Amino acid sequence: MVNYLDGNIGIDQLERTFVLENNKVAYKNKIPNTIYHHKNLPAPNYSGLPYNKYVSFLDVVNPMHRMWTDARWNKLTISHGCYWKQCSFCDVSLDYIGNYQNTTAVDLVNKIEKIIKDTGITGFHFVDEAAPPKMLRALSKELIKRNLEITWWTNIRFEKTFDFDLCQIMAQSGCIAVTGGLEVASDRLLSKMKKGVDIAQVTRVTHHFSQNNIMVHAYLMYGFPTQTEQETIDSLEVVRQLFERNCIQSAFWHQFTTTIHSPIGQNPEAFSIQITGPIFEGFAQNDLYHKDVQGADHPKYTKGLNLALHNYLNNAGLQDSLQNWFDFPIPPTSHPKGLIESFLEELAIK
Ligand code: SF4
Q1: Closest residue (by CA) to atom 5 of ligand 1?
Q2: 8 and 110 inside one domain
Q3: Could you give the number of structural domains in the chain?
């Protein structure tokens, strides 16, 4: 901005800046951004925060949601943005997802040491969109090399790189939990949303984490465009079996909604939905309303899905019929009882 005001650059060279142009607010953002790079950012400075005055909440039974509010975690990002940036429901056109930038493990651990010095707290929540496995390996090795004892957790994609060895080294370096998107546990819809994982792969990866005592929380979704009633029930059955086999220990259902910045919001016809609102009123349009003409009546399942999950989280009702969670008739699942078991057996043979 100073360079622009000094007349050294033109208005279109500005980055991430709102300007008044012809009496209208316009956004100027030269891509790619050059004003900062993740690798050049200093450690966030939390010194002076009165940590001892913050109340530690134990407000919900969901074990992962509890971690967000119970205890103090230093917040830090391993990488900026998401290295995958393909999921069709995600805000991939925005900088915080689509602009992937990295740094080195040495730089990261230097920052970690600095933050511990500032705060005296050794718990870290790496608030990445999807922490890259390559960086997690390098980070874990660097923490072990420096003999730095911290406790940490982060968000990942359930991708196949997370084999037993990687999960083991992560656990040795202090990793206690991961969160990741299983979304709609249906291979047809996972492929439609370009998640880049399938149920078999999620089973193997979550099993590797769990074997190493790293707690796994799955983000779940229902109501994805064209999702049928059968697919919703089958998705619940996959979740039930994943809990039963201790692949996941925590999860949360979100009902799908589309945003203006996601591939679905930008091309709704390709996903067979109709956008019905809201009318843009000049500020921060994000969530859109839509009609899913081909899919099921999605809100109808909210109560039953949540009730089932609440029980599974508490290790209850795992053997109950899926019908028990709904007060209207549902179709039986089309999955065999041993679906998840069969993926784990394949792993044992390999
Ligand atoms: S949903 Fe997660 S993995 Fe997919 S593009 Fe967004 S941040 Fe990346």
Answers
A1: 85
A2: no
A3: 2
Same domain for 163 and 304: yes
Q: List the CATH number of the domain containing 178.
A: 3.20.20.70
Tell me which residues of the chain have a pLDDT lower than 70: 59, 350
Q: Cβ(263) to ligand 1 under 6 A?
A: no
3-state secondary structure of 155: strand
Q: Are residues 252 and 330 in the same domain?
A: yes
Structure tokens at 167: 């999960």
pLDDT at site 348: 79
pLDDT of residue 67: 84
87 lines ligand 1 (CB under 6 A): yes
In ligand 1, which atom is closest to the CA atom of 86?
Answer: 5
Residue range of the domain that includes 313: 37-349
Helix runs in the chain, H state only: 2-5, 63-69, 95-98, 105-119, 133-145, 164-172, 187-192, 199-211, 229-244, 263-266, 302-313, 339-349
Model pLDDT, residue 95: 86
Q: What are 338's strand-pairing partners?
A: none
Task: Report which protein residue has its CA nearest ligand 1's atom 7.
Answer: 129
